[in-house]
Design goal:
Elements lengths: L11 H8 L4 E3 L9 H17 E5 L6 E5 L3 H18 L4 H20 L3 H9 L7 H20 L5 E6 L2 E6 L5 E5 L4 E4 L4 H7 L4 E6 L7 E7 L2 H12 L3 H6 L3
Antiparallel strand pairs: 1-4, 2-3, 4-5, 5-6, 7-8, 8-9
Helix pairs in contact: 2-3, 2-6
Length: 250
C-alpha cells in the first residue's frame, strides 16, 4: 500500500516572512505638507464664486470682478488659513493635545453658561471679508505648486531605505549613502499630535530610531505618511537577518 509523501508544514514564521516586504522606503516631509487645506478650500471657494458670483465693477464703470454675495466665504477661508498656520507651528502631542481639546470644550461651555455666545456670534456676524474669484484661484495655485513641488519632488531627494538588518540614508543628488546596522536598534513612533498628524496629516507621524554599539546614533524621521503601517513593517524587517530573506525565496 502506497502512502502519499508528507507535505511540508508551513511554520508561522514562514508565513510572516512571506508577507514581509524586502524593503521599506521612508520619506520625511516638511511641515508644508500640512498646508493642503489652504489650496483645497481655496479652489472650493473659487468654484462657489464662479457658479454663484456677482460681477462688480471696480471702480464703478471700470473692470468687472466676480465676487460671491455671501460674506461667509472670506471669513471661512481666513479662519482655515489661520488654523493651518497655527497647527503647523505649534506642536501639541499626547496629553497636551487632550488638554487643548478639553480647554476648547470648557470655553464653549463657559460661554454658553454665562450667555455670551450671542454677543460673540453678533460680533462675527458683523465681520465682512470679501475676496474675488481671481484671488482664490491665484493664491490657491501658488500654494498648490509649492506644496506639490515640496511633497513629490524636494522631499524625495533624501530618503531612508530599510532592509533586513540594515537601514540606509540615501540622497538623490551627489550619491550620498550612509548605512546603519539594525542589531539591537530601538524603534519608536513618537506620541502624535492630534491636530497636525491626524486632522491635517491624515495618519502621518514621526519615527525615532536609536542604534547600538560604539557609535550610538539617534535617527529622527519626521512627518512620515501612513506611519502606523510603516512602523509595523519596519519592526519585522529590523528583527530579521538578510540570510533569512534569502532562505524564504525573497
Amino acid at each position: 500500500m502506497s502512502t502519499a509523501p508528507p507535505q511540508p508544514s508551513t511554520q508561522p514564521h514562514d508565513v510572516e516572512y512571506a508577507e514581509t516586504p524586502s524593503e521599506v522606503y521612508l520619506y520625511s516631509h516638511s511641515s508644508f505638507f500640512y498646508w493642503w487645506p489652504v489650496w483645497f478650500v481655496g479652489y472650493i471657494m473659487a468654484a462657489l464664486t464662479y457658479f454663484n458670483g456677482t460681477a462688480i465693477a471696480i471702480p464703478p464703470g471700470g473692470q468687472e470682478y466676480l465676487f460671491h454675495s455671501s460674506k461667509n466665504l472670506g471669513v471661512v477661508y481666513t479662519f482655515v488659513f489661520f488654523l493651518v498656520i497655527l497647527m503647523t507651528n505649534i506642536s501639541l502631542r499626547g496629553l497636551t493635545s487632550a488638554i487643548a481639546i478639553l480647554s476648547a470644550l470648557l470655553i464653549a461651555l463657559a460661554l454658553a453658561y454665562f450667555g455670551l455666545w450671542e454677543p460673540v456670534l453678533n460680533l462675527l456676524g458683523s465681520l465682512n471679508i470679501y475676496m474675488n474669484m481671481g484671488f482664490y484661484v491665484f493664491f490657491s495655485t501658488l500654494i498648490f505648486l509649492v506644496w506639490f513641488t515640496s511633497v513629490f519632488i524636494y522631499d524625495r531627494m533624501s530618503y531612508w531605505r530599510v532592509r533586513p538588518g540594515q537601514i540606509m540614508h540615501e540622497t538623490v543628488f551627489g550619491g550620498g549613502e550612509k548605512s546603519y546596522d539594525t542589531r539591537g536598534m530601538t524603534l519608536e513612533k513618537l506620541r502624535q499630535d492630534l491636530f497636525r498628524h491626524w486632522i491635517l496629516g491624515l495618519g502621518s507621524g514621526d519615527i525615532h530610531m536609536t542604534t547600538t554599539g560604539a557609535t550610538r546614533e539617534e535617527i529622527y524621521v519626521p512627518n512620515v505618511l501612513f506611519v502606523d503601517s510603516k512602523v509595523a513593517r519596519i519592526q519585522r524587517l529590523i528583527s530579521m537577518k538578510p540570510e533569512e530573506i534569502v532562505q524564504t525565496g525573497h
